[in-house]
Every structure is written in structure tokens, then in C-alpha cells.
Amino acid sequence: MEYRPVPESRLQAFENVAHYAFSPEDQPEETDRVTDPSKQFGEPRALFEDDELTAICRLLEFEARCRGEWLSLGGLRAVATPPEYRRDGRAATLLRQSLREFADRDIPLVVLWPFDHDFYASTGWASAGKHATYRFPPAALEPIAANEAGRFFRPSPDDWERLRRVNQADGEETSLTLRRTEHWWRHRVFEQSGARRHVYAWERDGTVESYVVYTVAGGEDDRTLTVHDVAAVDDRAFRHVCWLLFTHDSQVETVELPGDPSHAPGELLDRVAAPEAVTCELDHGAMVRAADVPTALEAIPYPDDVATEFVLDVEDGLVDWNDATFHVAIEDGEASCERSEDGYESVDVSVSVGTLSQLVVGYGTVERARRAGDLVIHDDDLEGTLDRAFPQRPVELSEYF
């Protein structure tokens, strides 16, 4: 088997494998098409055997916030294997080779949306946030809704930079917030799969301070307004978005609104009218894992008052370059991490690559990593120091790909 980029001559075969994996209900003749390349996301990769595509994926590369800093972030999507090549380890081989490519590019972390959480957990990925979705009648927003100043308008895709400023301000404290490119705004926000979405923005004194992106579906008596993206620079700006949604009470029965990752799940229930009419569904979100442990630990900032060093033993059942022992030193807001070829006489900290990746992005505390993960601190004096080195942060990858 050979892992390599998919040439243009094989893109049709690539699309057929992907289409069958994610839309098997379609008839074979419906798969014989290639989506407009300008609207495709990610570099196509495959495991080839005698020129046959036996497993496929797409690699993505983003800029994302992690602990307040921008860093390069890898993404995997469209991971699929034709049924005749399943259950023989090809998917794991594909993941291993893609991680090698990301590591060679000095990409510290790789995220994905799992089709099967347990499968990806077994290959080193771990949860990177939880996603809350509220469902309620529009009238529930009346106590929050504000329409005091400014104006609403319908931005065009050419206004993407004005909206990006709001998006980045809203996600400033949230790890895994992406710095969306112009292409992403035009083809993943203002539209999806070629279908345009409704977009409204609220501006005050000429500056956009909030926006909302949504679609409406259903029959005349059971329409649902689904919010796909919402951002605001502060609570007042968010309340104006709530006013716009509230005004749809004569058109839709239900509003679906994503929760704010910087707020506790369920917080909206304390602000709405008739909270008994509101449901809050909590799902696991995307998953994250380190492509390369030293690169990941050295990529993030640390509190200036933390100075420590320790021997770290990492378990990674998928890639051997992470399944090793490392010497980690943290000082002056930075870390150095060196892999040991011969090992150390004693180990201070033991952890799987998945739990370590969660600590890197700020998903949970050190205590949570011990309780719910597999972190073992052999030197009790280190626990408080590690807790200060890896403080909990809001974490959510809100971009689905």
C-alpha cells in the first residue's frame, strides 16, 4: 500500500468512494460526478494498492486560537474506506500516514469530527469540547431581546471581513476558534453545498457588532429556524441578535440556537421566558490529538510564573514517534520538549496522547484529566504546578467540516 496525493485523473474515483461512504442511499449513477473543485475543502489523500483507492481522506490546514495564541491546526475530513477493504487496518494506516504528513509540516494538533467516537478514541483522538443546542419557540427570547440602537442589514459575501472581526472578538477566549479565510466565509458561511443562507448583521455607528446565519425549513405549521453561526462582541450585541430571532414568532414554530462555549451549558435557561418550553441538548463535539508531542507542547503559551521540569511518558498506540518518554521544561512562558532515545530512570508524569492533547488545548483541569482521563502524576508535588501550567479554557471547534 502507498499513501500519496490523489491525482486529478483519479478525483472521480475519490468522489465515488466518499459519496458511497456518506450517502449510500443514493443510486450508483448519482455518484458519477465531481463536485466543483473551487468549493472542495482539503487536499485529497489515499492509500493506493495497484492503483485502487483503498482508503481516502482530505487534509486541511487552518489557523486557530489555542490558549489565546494563533497556531497552525490540522484537520481531517472525508475519512472513508470502501466496504471491500474494511476491517483490515487500512483506516488506521491512513490515519497514521496523515499524522506523519502533518508532523512533517510542523503542525502540532489535528482535529476531526468523528463518525464513530470510540473508533477515533482508540486511535488517540480525544473530545475537544461539548456542543449545546437550544430549541425553543421564538417568544422565549422576548426578555433578552433588545432593539435600542443601530440597525440590521443583510451583508453580502463581500462583507466577510467585517463579520470576521466580530467572529474573532467573540471567540477570543475560546481554544480552537478558527481564523476563517475568505474562501471559508464565502463557501462555508454564506452558503453550504451551493445553497445560500440567510445572513443578518447588526451595526452601531458604522461598526458591525453582531451577526447571525440561519436557514428555515419545514412546512407552514412546523417551520424551524436553525442558526448555523452567531457571534457578538458583547452581550448587548448578542441581545440584538435575539431580537431579530424573536421577530420570527409569526413565521416559525421553533428556533435552534447553538450554545456559547464560554458559558456554562444551560445558562440560557436562566434568561428566557417560559424555560419549561426550552430544551438543551448536549453532544460531544470535535476531537483533537497531537500530531507530534514536542511540537504540540512547544506551540502553546504558558503562564509566566510557572517554572518546572519533569519527565513525561506518553502512550500512543498509533504512531511510534509519540509513544516515548520526553523531558519537558517550562520557563518564561515557553516550553521545551526533548524526546529520549534511551529512556529515563524514573518518570514523573504518565499520560495517553489523547488526554495530553486535551490538556494542551485547555479541555478540563489537571484533576479532570486524572479523574476522567488517564493522567498519572507520580510526583505529588507536581500537581499544583501542572494545574497552573495547563489551566482550563473554553474549548469548542464550532466549524463543521
TrEMBL record:
Residues 1-148 form the N-acetyltransferase domain. Keywords: Transferase. It comes from the Archaea. SUPFAM superfamilies: Acyl-CoA N-acyltransferases (Nat), SCP-like. Gene3D superfamilies: 3.40.630.30, SCP2 sterol-binding domain. InterPro entries: Acetyltransf_17 (IPR041380), Acetyltransferase_Eis (IPR051554), Acyl_CoA_acyltransferase (IPR016181), Eis_dom (IPR025559), GNAT_dom (IPR000182), SCP2_sterol-bd_dom_sf (IPR036527). GO terms for biological process: aminoglycoside antibiotic catabolic process. Residues 22-41 are annotated as: Disordered. It holds the Pfam family SCP2_2. GO terms for molecular function: aminoglycoside N-acetyltransferase activity. This is Predicted acetyltransferase. The lineage of its organism: Archaea, Methanobacteriati, Methanobacteriota, Stenosarchaea group, Halobacteria.
